[in-house]
Amino acid sequence: MKASVALAVMIPLVVWVSEHLVLVKTRSINHFVVWKSQQPLQRGRFVLFSLNDWPAASMNQRLMTTQEESWFNRIGGQFLVKRLGCQAGQQLTTVTNQQQYHYLCDGDPVTTARDHPEHHFVFNGIVPESHAFMVGDHPRSLDSRYFGLVPLDTAQRVLTTAELLKLNRRG
């Protein structure tokens, strides 16, 4: 009897946790577990999104090179977790100098790309509605520096373990 009660409690709990827990499979961010959240998307916070529609839905109008096609084939259809670096309505600026591309959001530094300048996304303007510039924590992260603006129609805010613990302490 006790075992069946424990099982009746554990199975829904395991299902619920598995629907909210996300294991990060790359070194792109400094966390390996994040938790899906209903909190609003916010600059500087982590977001879970898919590149199913990339590059057609991105604002990057360049033709894909062979290497870009290779990158997309590796990540297309997968969910990625990145930091929201610049969001709709904000000014995204790309400044280039000596093989480096500096990305600024409303004048504040977001990230820099140093390698493969022929593959960098360049944008100077207001980020369009329902799009964002996503960045990883790792300097060699495959992110918006290479694949452009990301459509946010399926994006979801995720919380790190530290953010979850901080929320729990506040009650």
Architecture overview:
- This protein is of the alpha+beta class and 171 residues long.
- The chain is built from four helices and eleven strands.
- The longest helix is centred in the first third of the chain and has 19 residues, at 2-20.
- The protein is elongated.
- The two termini are 34 Å apart.
List the helices and strands and how they pair.
Elements (H helix, E strand, L loop, with lengths): L1 H19 E3 L9 E4 L9 E5 L15 H10 L3 E9 L3 E7 L2 E6 L2 E6 L11 E2 L4 E5 L8 H4 L2 E2 L4 E5 H10 L1
Antiparallel strand pairs: 1-2, 2-11, 3-4, 3-11, 4-9, 5-6, 5-8, 6-7, 9-10
Distance between the termini: 34 Å
The fraction of residues assigned to DSSP E strands is: 25-35%
- How many strands in all? 11
Q: What's the helix count?
A: 4
Side by side, the strands of the main sheet go 1-2-11-3-4-9-10
Question: Shape from CA axes?
Answer: elongated
| Rg over CA atoms | 18 Å
Largest sheet: 7 strands, antiparallel
Order of helices and strands: HEEEHEEEEEEHEEH
Contiguous low-pLDDT stretches (5 residues minimum) are 56-69
- Approximate helicity band: 25-40%
Look at the helices and sheets and give the structural class. Answer: alpha+beta
* Mean pLDDT over the residues: 78
